[in-house]
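// run 5 | inverse folding | seed 20
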């Protein structure tokens, strides 16, 4: 049902959210059992951004950005907007004016399975966006959607308050209730990877570190 705005959303602890941002998408994705990764069609409009934030979700009709304005009122410091159109669309739902408003509310970025525009201005502002398209086509304000309801964005279910982690590798969603546990696993993974990185830098081979030789031989690999 459209026309809903949920105003009370539970969020993960800020230090957990910031820790997930530091870990990054690839590590978080692996740490939670290779789940939660949004489709690869979502790409950052400029490189180098790495964020995490609580999801403020938007279910929007195709070509209509009315609910983005409604969602911005619901933003709290550290949130990330997540927009899923109700049917496929590449129109430019979001540009520099909306980004200005969102930044004033403490928004960390936008994840949108549709289009954005004013990319030059968004880049200059340092407002991170992960989108399916960059497209100057504008939108209307004529049909209700909903804010802070569960949405499927780029193939993944996102509940309001879930943690969105995004960087150059893509976007991953972490269920709010699992966020602290996932962060603990991500940090353990980072420690393990740092030890392996040191061994690789010293000249050891992954074939030996990961004990691959026996399995490769059993599968029939032969050196000539």
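// decoded
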């Amino acid at each position: 049902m459209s026309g809903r705005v949920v105003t009370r959303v539970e969020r993960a602890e800020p230090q957990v959210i910031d820790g997930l941002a530091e870990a990054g998408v690839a590590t978080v994705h692996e740490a939670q059992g290779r789940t939660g990764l949004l489709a690869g069609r979502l790409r950052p409009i400029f490189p180098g951004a790495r964020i995490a934030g609580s999801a403020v979700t938007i279910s929007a009709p195709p070509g209509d950005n009315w609910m983005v304005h409604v969602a911005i009122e619901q933003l709290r410091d550290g949130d990330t907007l997540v927009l899923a159109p109700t049917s496929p669309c590449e129109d430019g739902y979001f540009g520099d004016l909306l980004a200005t408003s969102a930044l004033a509310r403490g928004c960390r970025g936008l994840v949108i399975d549709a289009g954005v525009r004013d990319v030059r201005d968004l880049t200059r502002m340092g407002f991170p966006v992960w989108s399916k398209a960059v497209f100057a086509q504008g939108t209307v304000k004529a049909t209700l959607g909903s804010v802070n309801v569960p949405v499927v964005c780029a193939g993944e279910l996102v509940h309001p308050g879930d943690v969105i982690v995004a960087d150059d590798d893509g976007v991953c969603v972490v269920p709010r209730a699992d966020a602290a546990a996932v962060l603990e696993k991500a940090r353990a993974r980072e420690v393990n990877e740092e030890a392996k990185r040191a061994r690789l830098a010293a000249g050891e081979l992954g074939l030996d570190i990961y004990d691959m030789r026996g399995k490769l031989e059993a599968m029939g690999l032969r050196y000539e």
